[in-house]
Design a protein that fits this description.
Layout lengths: L4 H11 L6 H12 L5 H14 L3 H13 L12 E6 L7 H11 L3 E6 L9 H5 L11 H11 L1 E5 L6 H11 L7 H14 L4 E8 L8 H17 L3 E8 L7 E2 L1 H12 L5 H17 L6 H14 L1 H12 L18 E6 L4 E6 L1 H11 L15 E4 L6 E2 L4 E7 L2 H11 L3 E4 L10 E4 L2
Parallel strand pairs: 1-2, 1-4, 2-3, 4-5
Antiparallel strand pairs: 5-13, 6-9, 7-11, 8-10, 8-12, 9-11
Helix pairs in contact: 1-3, 2-4, 2-8, 4-9, 4-10, 5-11, 5-12, 5-14, 9-10, 12-13, 15-16
This protein binds uracil.
Length: about 450
Amino acid sequence: MSGHPEMLALIERKKAGEAMSPEELAWLCQGFVAGEIPDYQVAAWLMAVRWRGMSESETLALTRALVASGETLQWDTGSPIVDKHSTGGVGDKTSIALVPLLAAAGLTFVKMSGRGLGHTGGTIDKLESIPGFQVQLDSGRLRAQVARIGCALVGQSNTLVPADGVLYALRDVTATVDSLPLIASSVMSKKLAAGASAIVLDVKFGSGAFMRTQAEAEELGRAMVRIGSGAGRRVNALLSAMDQPLGKTVGNALEVVEAIEVLRNDGPADLRALTLELGKRLMILAGVCATPEKAHQSLERLLESGHGAAKLAELIEAQGGDAAVVDQPSRLPQAPVVQPIESSRAGWIAETDARLIAEAALQLGAGRRRKGDQVDPRVGVRLLAGVGDSVEKGQPIAEVHAASAADAARAEESLLPAYRWAAEPVSRPRPTHLLIED
Ligand code: URA
């Protein structure tokens, strides 16, 4: 085994807690993508970063080195280019409502999203539940669509940030995902390469999120905002609680229906509130509204007038999907078995644990445990009662949408422990949206 001698020196220095220079980080990213530095040395370096951390300027330099490993997109559409990233939650279908809503407001929104893995869902899987919807567009078609309708919702391009692709795969199998500078640079490299000038980051915290505590989410949010402003972009982070699923559904087609409902000026209050909050931050960052109040009013008008819903129909049609689902959501795939889950007791619901509900949906086939697993677009969970609701014994508290009665019975068993009960009234949670500005 003969490692790269220069890489050995870098591992030694990181092990001792030293900072790498921008040139060294660029060399490492390029050398790894080119196959000149072996996996085992990069793995050792990643573990040293995991324990020793990175300074702020080093994290920015790593982000720049990641971006420089591939193509970067430039848009010249005459309107501000905006983007959004969520650190992943349960029931988070916000992008499907937010992208067309902001395009209806005159902004250009090209959103590249991922597939779900583990307990968190992915926007791309949700969109693929729309019959015919194509998530991979070649660059000519993507540009033509964006010029024509102002938005696109597509899979992450593999020509952007190839170094992140290979580093992330190595982190996944070397227990080095949970490193703040590595997460922040990975996320921000993809946002910077995609070319937006205004970016909003939705950093989730709580039982259903990657970051369990608000303090961790705040630290990550601050690091990402600093990287974005260091690279000359306007960035805000919004910290949002993810102890309960967002909205009332978890599962691909079920979640698309909720996003459509928000655009039709309806839908669950928490999903609507988060969509409007992220939207108004982008309107301000993009410089098209001076105050949050004005931004909020103009987004509400787009929901009331149906312009947001009409833009979603345009987007679906442009990407080859059945746009009639916007007016008739029943055209989306439906599970053959819909089984109500009845409460085994009377009382107030004190908790609906997002991670356990996500596990039940995963077991039904709504997500994938391993890369490459098939997802079933029809299946999932609908919550009929939430935190703060008072429930009678025998009252339906949820519905399981399953491929078979046996799957539904298994999901019921996994779902019941997600509920915690109180004998006294419990207040309904208010949406938590804490803003971090640059
Ligand atoms: N998502 C990313 O894109 N990168 C990470 O490192 C973690 C989550």
